[in-house]
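Good day; I would like, with your permission, to put a structural problem before you. The record follows directly beneath this note:
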Amino acid sequence: MINVKIEESWLNYLSNEFKSEYMMKLSIFLKEEKKIKTVYPNGGKIFNAFNLTPFPKVKVVILGQDPYHGPNQANGLCFSVNNSVSIPPSLKNIYKELYNDLRIPLNSSGCLERWSKQGILLLNSCLTVEKGKPGSHRNIGWERFTDKVLERLNKHKKNVVYLLWGKQAQEKASIINKVNNKVIMSAHPSPYSANNGFFGSKPFSKTNDYLINTNQSIINW
């Protein structure tokens, strides 16, 4: 079994994955890559989304693509950056929609840990990336792993809100039971696509409306 630093409740549901051949290969791949390349995020942050949002507390899932590939950006939470880092364009658009939807002022910090601690799993499809090369760690096993994450949530939890922004995230929609959960899909918040359906989609108020209707506490966005 791979020795990973991941929160205990998640380990209970994912332990078989860490014993699997594909994850063994992924672990070897990352060790070899790190010998000659810079990989983000650093090892202690790869499973940060899980560590900040234990399995029993998950009530919202936001699905991203892969980590930011610039220095000091990736912190293991999709769309999030460290406090000292300038806010990337996609997150700026998320904040703009948040303002348009709920009139919440634009935040000066791009760190979304405050969301994670309220039960929002900020999950990327791929959990690592090579410096300066977006998408460089696709098709090495991470997508299979994150499929399994969604399968476990789908099997053991209901009344979860899934925010699927963009085509890549929406490809995972088939895993989710749409009767027992709420799936909200729109264009990706990237500057290339935000005007094609992300702006005006009101995902934040829709999320809280569903949480209220299922007797759950709302998110303080």
Strands lie at 39-40, 60-64, 120-124, 129-130, 161-165, 182-186. The chain has eight helices and six strands. The first helix runs from residue 8 to 18. The chain has a mean pLDDT of 95.
